[in-house]
Amino acid sequence: MSKLKVLAWTGPLAAVIWLVAVVVFGASLDGYDQLRHPVSLLGARGVSGGELFSAVGFILPGVLAAIAMFDLVLRMPASAPRSLRVGGQMLLLAGVAFAAMGLLPLDADDIENRASQLHASAWLLWLVAFCAGAIALRLGADKNSPWRSLATLALVCALWSACSAFLFQAAMPVAMAQRLAFLGWLVWLLGAWRLVPARK
Fold first, then answer.
1. Helix (H, G, I), strand (E, B) or coil at 80
2. 114-134 per-position pLDDT tens digit
3. Using N-to-C axis directions, what is the helix angle for 60-75 and 3-28, rounded to 10°?
4. Alpha carbons 181 and 189: distance in angstroms, whole number
5. What's the mean per-residue pLDDT of the chain?
6. Average of per-residue pLDDT across 82-109
7. Which residue did the predictor score with more confidence, 148 or 193?
8. At what angle do helices 174-195 and 3-28 cross, to 10 degrees?
9. Any idea what the Cα angle at residue 95 is, between residues 148 and 31, rounded to 5°?
10. d(CA 108, CA 188)
11. Burial class (CB in 10 A: 0-12, 13-18, 19+), 187
């Protein structure tokens, strides 16, 4: 299987699995409201089906995303600018951090305890790694670089996620702002493979 094919199916598959998991588990959890409750609540300790959602909704998509980004890094030529390679590595880290959210679930009985704080830290690491990776990728792709379009997509998606996480919640429920932050990452996973430069 070629590297492009690996990137083409692992990234989009991660996005689709996450979306289906959120919809299906959200519909099956009594009293859960997609407009008011955070996604992380579906995988929280003490919630029915929480462990399964953590595996399907966080760990599996995160691993698939990390595979896609590892494949992206492998496609970068040895002569690529250092910031481009660092960007790819940070995007890979974002996938790992996403999976870590499933390994470190919230505690439904106490959202302020250590377990919940670790989950929040994994979420923040995912967002920071995604944004930092996108910025580094963009800095490493000058206007004549074949990586320019890919880097621009990453930057736009990451800026959307950052604004959703830190600004949009002032005008909407936190749960919706969180979903919009995830949306930026999903768009990146769905669209990245189309813009990867052809191998020479």
1. coil
2. 878 999 999 999 999 999 999
3. 160
4. 13
5. 91
6. 94
7. 148
8. 160
9. 120
10. 30
11. middle
